[in-house]
Amino acid sequence: MRNGGMVAAQRLGAGVARSGSVLALALATSMMAAAPAAAQTAATPASAQASAAPAQKAASAPVLDADAFAQIPFFADGALSPDGRRIAGKFGMGGTQVIGIRNLFDPQEKPMNLAVPDQTEADWVQWVGDDYLLVKLRALLPMPDSADRTYVSRLISIERKTGKVTRLLWTLAGQNVADVIWVAHDGTPEILLSAQNSMYLDEGFFPSVHRVNLATGREHVVQSSRDGVLSWQADGNGVVRSGVSVTKSGRMSQLYYRGADPSQQLRTIDRASSKAHESLLDPILFVPGTDNAIAVLTGDDGRDRLYEINMLTQQTGRVLFEAPAGTEIARTLLSQDRSAVLGVTTSDMPDRVHWLDKDMAELQAAFDKSVEPQKVSVEISSLSADRRAMLLTLARPDSPGALYYFSLDGGMMQRVAVFNDKLKQVPVSPVKTVHYKARDGLSIEAVVTTPKGREAHNLPVVMLPHGGPWAQDVASWDYLAQYIASRGYLVIQPNFRGSTGYGADFLHKGEGQMGLAMQDDITDGLAWAVSEGLADPKRACIVGASYGGYATMWGLAKDPDLYRCGVSISGVASLRREVNDFGNYYMEGKYSDDWKAMTPDFAAVSPLNAVDRIKAPLLLIHGRKDVTVAVSHSDAMASRMRAAGKTVDYVSLPKADHYFTRLDDRKAMLDAIGAWLAKYNPS
After folding, report:
1. Cβ of 680: how many Cβ atoms within 10 Å?
2. Which 3 state secondary structure label does DSSP give 363?
3. CA angle 398-402-406, nearest 5°?
4. Per-residue model confidence as pLDDT tens digits over 164-178
5. The pairing of beta strand 316-322 with beta strand 329-334
6. How far apart are the C-alpha atoms of 421 and 305, rounded to whole Å?
7. Which residue, of 213, 301, 461, 665, has the greatest Cβ tally within 10 A?
8. Residue closest to 461 by CA, chosen among 519, 558, 567, 534
9. With contact defined as beta carbons under 8 Å apart, do 321 and 329 qualify?
10. Which of 277, 267, 276, 317 is nearest to 295 (CA)?
């Protein structure tokens, strides 16, 4: 396949690939293609069955400027429609991100684009049949009669044929009116929506479940609210089967359950205490016609396992999947009718599916044989309802990757687009995963990116801790790490203790260690790189976003002679307001417990209170439309640094959000980082 042309792979019988040879050719040649099938628009597989275009000379290597790395991905967080003809998701258009729908087969069908409202983030999109799209929106808004702000979520539906946008239950006054617990799979545009009607602890605070018709807007309550119940779950037939009740402190919870007959009463079947680190049974799906459910349970050995379990007796049955030691089951993939678990992902490869469905497992194996698995992964990212059409992501850690369409009917494969039209699929800087020992002997995993064309010896180095802190960096495409590496720096992304993905024991090792051992783990990663001869200890800087921004500022204060400079992007400067003030919140006790467990003294490990100890120059970058970390953190830090006579610069971007989803903002951020590193730690 050249220039995105169609390859007519052999017909794959019985829904699975019997040979990977032709598919190997399709994937191999597509990886070498220099241009997308259609820049920033979906390709048209049905019209691409003519012979491939003549080969063209390979494109010259792209200029690695900030603009190239700052490109908004062509497609993200999206899905294939149930009939397999369209894709919907977040599209990079005109330097910003929009919600869109594209027809893969009919170039005459006008693409649908919807701008995300100001001061709002789009969390996800979901198809309801082939003609309606759900979009969850989230905003951080002022509380009525209060100086506090709170997250508010709402749902809209988009009618594909007309582009009509309908606000679903926006007349309700609750904080969360966007919890979709069921979607019809019989062609009717109906959903079950769990929604609050008040932000205050009164009659409307606890959510009721509404059945909503997206075509008519009509709705009715199918499950009334119940005191203490904050979340509901339904089975594949649209029957509300369970609800989780939490006390006001949040420290005690219980699970209510009913059988498949909606006339049955809910009964309490499980209780748990957060203080005792107990876990409540959490059904993923309900097995049709039984009182069994599928759930993830963590054994005494710390291993996650996917079980079939009887809801009434809580006796475990067959084990569907066991996660490798030291990893977690990250998410599960369900059939469209929610009758079966098709596969699971694990934290060691969070985008890679372990298929439980036999046909899908055989198809994945055929894809894997078609590429070099050490360099390229083929991820089945979305399926049609009949699972005969799918979206494939060809990804590698050193390249942004590309999106493909594949159909079992005729073995049709087509590249839809590359994710980054500037970098295309040309490998940039190599990425690998390493392990090192922290000072107390704990094994820490880190992702290391080495600048392309440079020997990994005595390089200037940038420590790049992740956000969260309950998060994890893996060996996948990271535009920030790649940009920094392209400037000649070794980039190290340590998964310090308290990171997710390594099991409960590793997670709990972060308790009491925020700003202490969690920070030391980052420092020890630098020491390891120096001991291995990879990094020059006299040329080290630290950069991070969100919690990583906190770790940057605190790293400059805790170890003032270690780094030559730091860059905090949307960082948390004061822990008290951010994590330790939950008065009058529902579940305030649990929130307080969780955060107080992280450090004995918030003020003592807040960068805002340690400015006098900072020696290295600090660059602050923050978007004024950030709805995740308030811009006041960087405002205050900049003011405190200037008052103390410290070297500081502040790039305040008026239109940027937390994730820098506008090209101009992302480019401004990268340019500022590149200039700051070049000035204070030249490579």
Report:
1. 19
2. helix
3. 140
4. 999 999 999 998 999
5. unpaired
6. 40
7. 461
8. 534
9. yes
10. 317
Distance CA(578)–CA(557), nearest Å, equals 19
Cα separation, 611 vs 615, whole angstroms: 9
User: What is the predicted pLDDT for the residue at 4?
Assistant: 28
Residue 293 and residue 287: Cα distance in Å, rounded? 5
d(CA 553, CA 566): 7
Judged by DSSP in three states, 594 sits in helix
C-alpha distances (whole Å) from 648 to each of 565, 620, 644 are 10, 8, 10
Q: Which residue is listed with tokens 């690695």?
A: 64
Total residue count of the chain as it appears in this document = 683
Phi-psi region of 570 (alpha: psi -120 to 50; beta: other; left: phi over 0): left
Place of tokens 């923050």: 622
Counting Cα atoms < 13 Å in the Cβ hemisphere of 77 gives 17
Nearest CA to 248 out of 589, 597, 591 is that of 589
CA distance 680 to 659: 26
> Considering just the CA atoms, what is the radius of gyration of the chain in Å?
25
- The pLDDT tens digits for 59-116 are 333 447 999 999 888 888 889 999 999 999 999 888 888 999 999 999 899 999 988 8
**Contact (Cβ atoms closer than 8 angstroms) between residue 505 and residue 302:** yes
Give the pLDDT score at 278. Answer: 83
Among candidate residues 470, 468, 525, the one with its CA nearest the CA of residue 493: 525
Q: Which pLDDT score is estimated for 426?
A: 84
Query: If we measure between CA atoms, which residue out of 655, 637, 635 comes closest to residue 646?
Result: 637
Nearest C-alpha neighbor of 619 from the set 497, 484, 490, 529: 484
Which long-range CB contacts under 8 A does 335-343 form with residues at least 24 apart?
336/82, 336/185, 336/385, 337/185, 337/236, 338/182, 338/185, 338/235, 338/236, 338/285, 339/236, 339/285, 339/287, 339/288, 340/285, 341/284, 341/285, 341/294, 341/306, 342/383
**Please, is 55 exposed, middle or buried when counting C-beta atoms within 10 Å of its C-beta (0-12, 13-18, 19+)?**
exposed
Residue in the structure block whose two tokens are 């060996």: 475
Residue boundaries of the structural domains of the chain: 1-73+337-424, 431-680
Does the domain made of 431-680 have the CATH classification 3.60.20.10?
no
Say if residues 209 and 242 touch (Cβ distance below 8 Å).
Answer: no
Rounded to whole angstroms, how far apart are CA atoms 627 and 189? 32
359's CB contacts (< 8 A; 6+ apart) are 14, 15, 16, 387
Cα distance between residue 675 and residue 565, in whole Å: 12
Which pair of tokens denotes residue 217? 């807007």
| Amino acid identity, position 324 | P
577 to 148, 552, 592, 601: CA distances (angstroms)? 10, 19, 12, 13
Class of residue 233 by CB neighbours under 10 A (exposed 0-12, middle 13-18, buried 19+) = buried
- The helices-and-strands tally (H runs, E runs) of the chain is 11, 36
Q: How many CB atoms lie within 10 A of CB 103?
A: 19
pTM score, whole prediction: 0.80
Amino acid in position 93: M
- For 121, 229, 337, 467, the CA distances from 285, given in Å and listed in that order, are 28, 19, 10, 31
Supply 311's token pair: 């809801």
Q: Which residues pair with 285 in a beta bridge?
A: 294
